[in-house]
Amino acid sequence: MTKPTPDLKTLIRRLEKRHQKKQAATALIAGTAVLALTVFIAPLFAQEEALVLVQAPVPVSIPASRAFDDVEISGKAAIVYDLVTGETLYEKNSRSQLPLASLTKLLTVYAAAETLQEKSVVTISETALLLEGDSGLSVGESFTFGDLARLALVASSNDGAAAIAETASIARATTGRNLLAGAASAMGLSQTYALNGTGLDESTSVAGGYGSARDIALLSGALLTIAPDIARSTTEPSVTVRSREGKVHTLRGTNPGIVRVPNALLSKTGYTDLAGGNLAVVYDAGIGHPIAIVVLGSTIDGRFSDVNRLIQRTGEHFS
Known about the structure:
By secondary structure, the protein is an alpha+beta fold. The chain contains 9 helices and 12 strands. The protein has 2 domains: 13-45; 77-318, Beta-lactamase. 41% of the residues lie in helices and 19% in strands. A hairpin with a 5-residue loop joins strand 8 (238-242) and strand 9 (248-252). The chain is globular. The protein starts with 7 loop residues before the first helix and ends with a helix. 44% of the residues are buried.
């Protein structure tokens, strides 16, 4: 049997009902969209606004891979820190405060770079030459800050670092300790402080500088930013500088193996009786992707194998 054709009134009622259903569905979709904006998107804007107030990357302590799960190192503390994202890819007691030894020189050069120009003159004082270690410098000999900073970092020259700290503190009309404390505080290095500019032990129980692996990772990245040429010179196997008096000084670097690290950007060693073996390395894991690796409290040889092992695992992480 053929269905009866609906009259005009019936058709109109059907159309009205369909229209009402569409309006209800539209309202439901709109309401859901508003809820999504409130629940999901609004917090993103709030987060973006909060990030504007943060001057450094917000550290994240959860690795994105399992590349570091079974890694073993001899150091008491270590970190693999992504200087671009602020992620901690690996850490072992990374916030523990430990003696820094000559890693303190990174802080000395950074603090001086905030005050001195690269061509500023630094003169070697008699007091600076009284320190342990002989870099072949002489009383009254003068250098540009840039050249002496390279000598202090590449060859870990104690007299060079001491002379830099003296000159920068005089320029700032403050003491050497206050100069270093101010730089550490400005960077937010909460575990870092120095009693001298070299990191040499003050006594058998007191180190010349203290800090954490995380702080040194941040400091290394900051030095690369403020004094990139000086920082990059630390990846050379030796350093040659000429004093303003014309004397040439060539010294071997304390980390000759850094030349085997691909795309190395910075290297600094440290060793004292209290600190044990320390090492900080920054290298580019990709195009413009610097990674800082710091090991504290290892042995004189173990620091190098520790860092090499962490570099290998970092490569696995990114692959």
